[in-house]
Design a protein that fits this description.
Layout lengths: L12 H20 L15 H6 L9 E18 L2 E7 L4 E7 H4 L1 H10 L5 E10 L5 E12 L14 H6 L1 H7 L1 H23 L3 E2 L5 E2 L11 E4 L4 E5 L4 H9 L4 E9 L11 E10 L3 H19 L6 E3 L5 E3 L6 E3 H9 L9 H11 L8 H12 L8 E7 L15 E9 L2 E8 L4 H16 L10 H8 L5 E7 H9 L3 H4 L7
Parallel strand pairs: 3-5, 6-10, 14-15
Antiparallel strand pairs: 1-2, 1-4, 2-3, 4-5, 7-9, 8-9, 10-11, 11-18, 12-13, 15-16, 16-17, 17-18
Length: about 500
């Protein structure tokens, strides 16, 4: 059995206050001595990671003659007589700094011992050497305080508890290389998405976060008020209706990586604020947009994987293959197979409700579509581990989606499932303004029945459709969920600063 990292309780507020006062006193004494605890400029010439990279494989007790100036946080400190040691970390790299009486002089060494604490940001300048034990080091000829830390660091040799990691992510980033790696992984994935879109001729655009009407998804919005316009506004739940307006205007391939806000529950796969990718392709459909989505995810996997393949390594060491052509299964057919009851678009609400009652599945404000989707999640969703497109959804739950070209009662929509959660969704877009108006009217009826997630009738969007929107495929994918698929972690680990109670 693998050893679990030891966890220690964080310092109490009393302990922090006591140590903080000691550090405040040091700050004051530094100022009195003419030393700047927070200088505006330092003669930095290199990053620690670059110094380490360029001096690999040296033997012990070597002087390189290379003079550098670096800065980093002290994550280990040992003061012994005429020679002091500090491990400096600048985010990507770590190196040992050596402060000796012979190199910096008696006054500077005394000031180091008096003023420097674990957690301080320090600048050192000196020669790159290896110690007698072979550790790459900088023998400082000069040191300066870069930023005096007033609070003590947690014990860096033990694992922070989850509460601290999430609420004080900056401590997590200092303490845990995996936390810093997640930020880099996310950046690589986003860069890959943008590159794939560019290679396919898409333009990145920006659409409003503040909207007079919320739409583009079934979700409860956050509301706010504009003093300048004296009007109530909504934080967007999706950029869809504005991106479709762009297609009407002749921008045939557009995408946006944006922030969305949904005033609903938070769990291991949901967050009230989240990053979303949406894209729309004129003269595409839900098949072509599925092909594009597979390409986007697989390219992102290659960008973050260790060997450039579509096989990613999760945080627990598990390897997960995102390669190959992903299968496409019918929602109705897979539900019928797993439930043992034939379910079709013509199955009545009463029959579906009876099946739901038998299985203990509760559905709020039930209609055919909601019952089918909830039953499908009950019977099928939990068995989906490898990537799979679930296709052809009930019409009632997809008011912005085109009716299937050959299957009555369903729409051309898919959801992409990976690791048992929904990663992305895609559509053949509804472009008939008359049909769209009727769908909005039906949504208004659902709202009157008490459905707080039902869409409102958007007259300006309907006006745009009346000018003619080309046939199109559209897709949306949660960036946070993409990182979950690439790393095997939960949503609170993939978000840099998650919202918590």
């Amino acid at each position: 059995m693998a050893n679990t990292p030891e966890q220690h309780e964080p310092l109490t507020e009393s302990e922090i206050s006591e140590q903080k006062q000691v550090r405040l006193d040091k700050r004051e004494r530094m100022i009195e001595a003419g030393l700047a605890p927070y200088p505006l400029e330092l003669p930095i010439t290199a990053k620690i990671a670059d110094v380490v990279e360029s001096h690999q494989g040296l033997e012990a007790d070597v002087k390189t003659g290379d003079i550098v100036g670096v800065a980093g946080r002290i994550v280990h400190l040992r003061n012994t007589g005429k020679l002091c040691f500090a491990a400096l970390q600048d985010g990507d790299g770590r190196i040992q700094a050596m402060i000796s009486l012979a190199e910096v002089g008696e006054e500077s060494l005394a000031q180091w011992k008096e003023f420097v604490d674990l957690g301080d940001q320090i600048f050192v300048q000196g020669e790159v050497i290896t110690s007698r034990r072979g550790e790459l080091s900088i023998m400082a000829t000069e040191w300066k305080m870069a930023s005096k830390a007033l609070r003590p660091l947690p014990n860096l040799h033990t694992e922070l508890n989850e509460e601290t990691r999430v609420r004080q992510r900056y401590l997590d980033l200092i303490n845990r290389p995996a936390a810093r790696q997640m930020v880099q992984t996310r950046a690589l994935a986003n860069a890959s998405l943008r590159q794939t879109f560019a290679e396919n001729g898409f333009l990145e655009v920006e659409t409003p976060m503040l909207q007079t009407l919320h739409g583009g998804a079934a979700a409860r919005p956050f509301s706010t008020h504009s003093n300048a316009f004296d009007t109530d506004l909504f934080l967007r739940i999706a950029p869809e209706l504005y991106l479709k307006r762009a297609l009407v205007g002749g921008l045939d391939r557009v995408f946006e990586i944006n922030r969305n806000f949904r005033n609903e529950g938070a769990d291991s796969t949901h967050s009230p604020e989240f990053a979303m990718l949406e894209a729309y392709q004129a003269y595409g459909d839900y098949n072509s947009i599925a092909d594009l989505t597979q390409q986007l995810v697989q390219n992102a996997a290659r960008a973050v994987s260790e060997d450039g393949s579509a096989v990613v390594t999760w945080a627990d060491g598990t390897q997960f293959d995102l390669g190959g052509d992903w299968p496409r299964i019918s929602m109705y057919e897979s539900l019928s197979e797993k439930s043992g009851v034939e379910v079709t678009p013509s199955t009545s609400v009463e029959e579906l409700q009876a099946l739901a009652d038998r299985e203990g599945v509760e559905v709020k404000l039930p209609n055919h579509g909601k019952l089918v989707e909830e039953l499908w999640e009950h019977f099928v969703k939990g068995e989906l581990e490898k990537p799979v497109f679930v296709v052809d959804f009930p019409m009632e739950t997809s008011p912005l989606t085109a009716a299937h070209r050959s299957k009555p009662g369903v729409v051309e929509k898919w959801d992409l499932y990976v690791r048992g959660f929904e990663l992305a969704t895609g559509y053949s877009e509804l472009i008939d303004p008359i049909d769209q108006r009727e769908r909005f009217v039906e949504q208004a009826r659902e709202s009157d029945r008490g459905d707080v997630e039902a869409m409102h009738l958007d007259e300006d969007f309907l006006t745009a459709l009346e000018y003619g929107m080309p046939p199109a495929g559209g897709m949306g994918m949660g960036i946070d969920r993409l990182l979950m698929a690439l790393t095997g972690l939960g949503i609170r680990e993939t978000v840099l600063f998650p919202l918590v109670k």
